[in-house]
Design a protein that fits this description.
The complex is a heterodimer of chains A (about 100) and B (about 140). Helix content of chain A is about 20%, strand content about 30%. With about 100 residues, chain A is α+β, with helices and mostly antiparallel strands. Chain A has a domain at about 45-100. Chain A starts with a helix and ends with a strand. The model of chain A is unreliable at about 1-20, about 70-90 and about 95-100 (pLDDT under 50). Chain B is rod-shaped, with a radius of gyration of 26 Å. Chain B is built from no helices and ten strands. Chain B starts with about 25 loop residues before the first strand and ends with a strand. Chain B has about 140 residues and is an all-beta fold. The mean pLDDT of chain B is about 90. Chain B is about 0% helix and about 55% strand. The interface of A and B includes residues 32 and 72 of A.
């Protein structure tokens, strides 16, 4: 019987101690928002051959476009790039390459 | 009042006073951090915000501040926090994964407008991430 009373007192003591500890803390919260934007890095493009000589016909198969991106990421899609797929550009025209992620 | 030579009788009264100083622990934050925006590509991208502050008051010794986050950050990203402290020892920049101690050994007293720094980082492999939010909880505890 004495043992039970001691145990009960101990449990009560632990309970009170736990309650006191809970009173000695305080919490506050804040919301943090974040986002990762896709990279749209200006790319440089080149066409091979760089110039189409006059009076020469060049087949589409000989034209290719190379692209390098300063991001180091390979573009997953290629848009608005003459010669890719192999489309002969008009002579003397500039090549505009647009990449998208 | 007794005059010299007169017989004086002192009358006293006693009263028991119960005195108690309750533990005090309060902490508040101010400011709403704007979205931390990074652009993918290149090396590790990060964005930092220092617009938030916190204030606290306590009469307890050796208190500390624990920062916790309500859910894990998306894969490839991390959120770190730094708390300035005048009465305690700042742990410096601490990445919040679950909960982490950010200030220790806070002495009794008050601190006002202590700077909170958040830093959001994304690894190069993270190319795009829609806007997300996490709730960061600062707990002043012993």
């Amino acid at each position: 019987m004495t043992g039970r009373r001691t145990l009960a007192a101990l449990v009560l003591l632990i309970g009170l101690h736990g309650f006191a500890v809970a009173q000695q803390s305080a919490s506050v919260s804040a919301t943090v928002r974040f986002v990762v934007l896709p990279l749209h890095t200006a790319a440089s493009g080149s066409i091979t051959p760089s110039a189409i000589p006059a009076n020469e016909t060049i087949s589409a198969e000989r034209i290719s476009v190379g692209i390098s991106s300063s991001s180091g990421l390979a573009p997953s899609r290629l848009l608005n790039a003459p010669g890719y797929p192999l489309i002969p550009p008009p002579r003397g025209s500039s090549v505009v390459v647009t990449i998208t992620d | 009042m007794c005059s010299p030579g007169a017989s004086c009788q002192n009358v006293t009264a006693s009263q028991a006073l119960a005195l108690e100083v309750k533990p005090v622990a309060r902490i508040v934050v101010s400011g709403a951090p704007p979205p931390l925006v990074v652009s993918a590509g290149g090396g590790i991208a990060s964005a930092t915000d220092v617009t938030s502050t916190y204030s606290l008051v306590t009469n307890l010794r050796s208190m500390r501040i624990v920062a916790s986050i309500d859910s894990p950050m998306p894969s490839g990203t991390s959120l770190a926090i730094t708390l300035q402290s005048a009465n305690g020892v700042s742990r410096g920049e601490v990445e919040i994964t679950g909960s982490a101690e950010v200030v220790a050994g806070i002495a009794p007293g008050s601190e006002t407008d202590q700077r909170i720094t958040y830093r959001f980082s994304a690894l190069p492999g993270v190319t795009e991430l829609a806007t997300g939010e996490r709730t960061v909880t600062l707990t002043l505890t012993d």
